[in-house]
């Protein structure tokens, strides 16, 4: 399927309790895999069970072969959601798992992602998807997958730019 000696991977993660988006792209920006993990509170006995289910479904991302960089969307610090503490727990479960497995990742603020992608730090979900269509000719059915793709693409571009800077500075 892949030429593992040549193929490099970049991952974007938009963590959420209801729509946890994961997108893996290669060094050309092509989507290699996308996954949307969805859960519903009423299907679980308690929040701990729900968080562990999402964690178990997402922890494979720490084992992606030839991954250069992963970007994860941070929580919106302005959010006033009743699930804020649960989302904090999920984010830190994921971050701890990645750290423990030596995965190179960075956490990006939602406003920074929106500004990088659209030039407007307060862009709504529709604009994010519209700009993805214009920039990369990609249609997304889900805004979480769109955000995850944009994060992966940002990681790819940052990694390539950093690599070029290192080459030029030698």
Description:
The protein contains 5 helices and 5 strands; from the N terminus they run βββαβαβααα. It is an alpha/beta fold. It has helices at 47-58, 84-100, 110-118, 125-136, 143-169, and strands at residues 9-14, 20-26, 31-37, 67-73, 105-108. Helix 1 packs parallel to helix 2 (84-100) and helix 4 (125-136) packs across helix 5. A 5-stranded mixed β-sheet has the order 3-2-1-4-5. It is 45% helix and 18% strand.
SSE arrangement:
Elements: E1 9-14, E2 20-26, E3 31-37, H1 47-58, E4 67-73, H2 84-100, E5 105-108, H3 110-118, H4 125-136, H5 143-169
Parallel strand pairs: 1-4, 4-5
Antiparallel strand pairs: 1-2, 2-3
Helix pairs in contact: 1-2, 4-5
Secondary-structure arrangement, i.e. CATH architecture: 2-Layer Sandwich
Q: Specify the helix fraction band.
A: 40-55%
Overall mean pLDDT score?
A: 92
Distance linking N and C termini: 35 Å
CATH class division: Alpha Beta
Order of helices and strands, N to C? EEEHEHEHHH
- SS element count, helices: 5
List keywords for this structure.
5 strands; Nucleotidyltransferase, domain 5; five-stranded mixed sheet; single chain; 170 residues; alpha/beta; 5 helices; 45% helix
Could you give a short description of this structure?
This protein is an alpha/beta fold.
């Amino acid at each position: 399927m892949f030429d593992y000696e040549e193929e490099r991977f970049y991952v974007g993660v938009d963590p959420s309790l209801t729509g946890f988006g994961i997108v893996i792209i290669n060094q050309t920006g092509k989507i290699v895999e996308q996954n949307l993990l969805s859960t519903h509170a009423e299907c679980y006995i308690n929040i701990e069970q729900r968080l562990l289910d999402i964690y178990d479904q997402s922890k494979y991302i720490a084992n992606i072969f030839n991954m250069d960089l992963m970007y994860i969307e941070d929580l919106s610090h302005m959010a006033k959601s009743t699930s804020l503490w649960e989302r904090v727990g999920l984010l830190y479960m994921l971050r701890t798992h990645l750290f423990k497995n030596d995965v190179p990742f960075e956490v990006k603020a939602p406003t920074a992602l929106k500004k990088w992608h659209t030039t407007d730090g307060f862009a709504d979900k529709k604009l994010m998807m519209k700009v993805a269509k214009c920039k990369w000719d990609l249609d997304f059915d889900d805004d979480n997958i769109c955000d995850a793709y944009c994060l992966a693409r940002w990681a790819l571009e940052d990694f390539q730019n950093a690599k070029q800077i290192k080459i030029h500075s030698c």
